[in-house]
Amino acid sequence: MIVILVISILVFGLYAIYPIFLKVFCSSRAEYNAKTNPIQEVSLILLTYNGRRYLADKIDFLLKELAHFEKYELIIIDDKSKDGTEKLLDEFLQNDKIKLVSKGAHTGIPASMNLGVKNARYDNIVFCDQRQRLSENSLQKIVEPLQYAEVGAVSGCLSSLDKDNNDSLIRRHENEIKCNESKSGNLIGVYGPFYAIKKNCYSFLPNHIILDDLYLSLKILKSKFVVIASGCMMTDDNFSRLYNYSRVKRYLKGLAQLLFEKNLIGDLSGRQRTMLLWHKYSRLLIPLLSFVGYLFVGYNIYRGPGYFIAFSLISLLGLGALFENYYKFTSKYLSVVRINILYLIAMFDLLLGGFLSHLNIHFDKSRFRLKNKKETIQSKVHY
User: Fold this and answer.
1) Are 202 and 217 in contact (CB under 8 A)?
2) Whole domain around residue 98: which residue ranges?
3) Quick check: 357 pLDDT over 80?
4) Best label site of 13, 182, 270, 364, fewest CB within 10 Å?
5) Which residues pair with 48 in a beta bridge?
6) 129 in a domain, yes or no?
7) For residue 217, what are the contacts with CB-CB under 8 A and spacing of at least 6?
8) Taken in order 252, 171, 179, 20, is the CA torsion positive or negative?
9) What pLDDT is attached to residue 358?
10) pTM of the model
11) In the 3-class helix/strand/coil scheme, how is the chain assigned residue by residue?
12) pLDDT grade, residue 328 (50/70/90)?
């Protein structure tokens, strides 16, 4: 029982202690110099791929938001959609404020972002995705902090309520963390679907980068503040349905990828590195520790009915969480369990895949050396 208690404390601590750490050690508000003139020039880059069902309403909304600025442009980057998006977008080309860039091939988000920035006319850039709903006046609110010389990027805030009004504990917890990080100007990762950035702070993205929003944020944090505009609210699809296994696995690959990006983490301050590793990486211990606790309970079921009941209840909880979407039943508590199970499976999947890949490379090298050795022997015999 002591082992279970220790594991429970560790799991709870990873969730609870980081927000406390932020409030105690990172609570000082970032100090800004005087504002520049109010921002009146904006280039909004809308990224789309197979988003035909979202685009008409989204473009109409964005044009209304942009109309508050003296000078603006809406740049739409279509990543070679296959659902009739391009035909729909042709209807908007009569508006001289809209610039449509259709890519010749589907090359991914980093290439689309780079292309958008190259086509941007103004120094204040806003990136926007196709799916999320935005709150009114969010565009004015998100660019306002860019008036300060110290601010390099501003993130919107993702609502914990989805489009069906279901609440997500994970999104709520993430919002609390990001708001606390923002108070010191060290927001560890903007929300990718909606954020503003100064053009001179943009680092052109390598095409292989998966977590482009986190990559850019870390680049900017070396010299500028990254903050969140809590009044700019995004509403997305249901969290549990949106974060499937492939998405979780892709996110883990992205986190692993950033560890090997040259100078990306090494150039951060000590506090920023601590925040990054705690916020993004240490939480991956939660599914691992939970699994260890589950195995411990299962190993001890012979000790008494208490362990057997606990093991059975945990097993049923896990199965219920995994099949939550299948039965079209949503629960904010089951979603927390489900996402941790998916992370656990994805970690084992990636570790096994990496191990097998290493064995395959080692086997190919050994076979290559053996082949060369045989050819050398044969050539000597022939000679």
Assistant:
1) no
2) 28-260
3) no
4) 270
5) 78
6) yes
7) 153, 187, 188, 189, 190, 226
8) negative
9) 53
10) 0.88
11) CHHHHHHHHHHHHHHHHHHHHHHHHCCCCCCCCCCCCCCCEEEEEEEECCCHHHHHHHHHHHHHHHCCCCEEEEEEEECCCCCCHHHHHHCCCCCCCEEEEECCCCCCHHHHHHHHHHHCCCCEEEEEECCCEECCCHHHHHHHHHHCCCEEEEEEEECCECCCCCECHHHHHHHHHHHHHHCCCECCCCCCCEEEEEHHHCCCCCCCCCCHHHHHHHHHHCCCEEEEEEEEEEECCCHHHHCCHHHHHHHHHHHHHHHCCCCCCCCCCHHHHHHHHHHHHHHHHHHHHHHHHHHHHHHCHHHCHHHHHHHHHHHHHHHHHHCCCCCCCCCHHHHHHHHHHHHHHHHHHHHHHHHHHHHHHHHHHHHHHHHHHHHHHHHHHHC
12) low
| Cα(170)–Cα(190) distance, integer angstroms | 16
Strands 194-198 and 151-158: antiparallel
Euclidean distance between CA atoms 72 and 52, whole angstroms: 23
More confident residue, 66 or 358: 66
Q: What share of the chain in percent tops pLDDT 90?
A: 61
Residue 299 falls inside a structural domain: no
Residue type, 357: S
Query: Does the residue 352 lie in any domain?
Result: no
Tally of residues, the chain? 383
Q: Is 113 exposed, middle or buried (0-12, 13-18, 19+ CB in 10 A)?
A: buried
How far is the C-alpha of 124 from the C-alpha of 40, rounded, in Å?
Answer: 9
In a domain, 364, yes or no: no
319's tokens: 């199965």
Q: Which amino acid appears at position 13 of this protein?
A: G
User: Taking the CA of residue 128 as centre, how many other CA atoms within 13 Å lie in the half-sphere pointing to its CB?
Assistant: 32
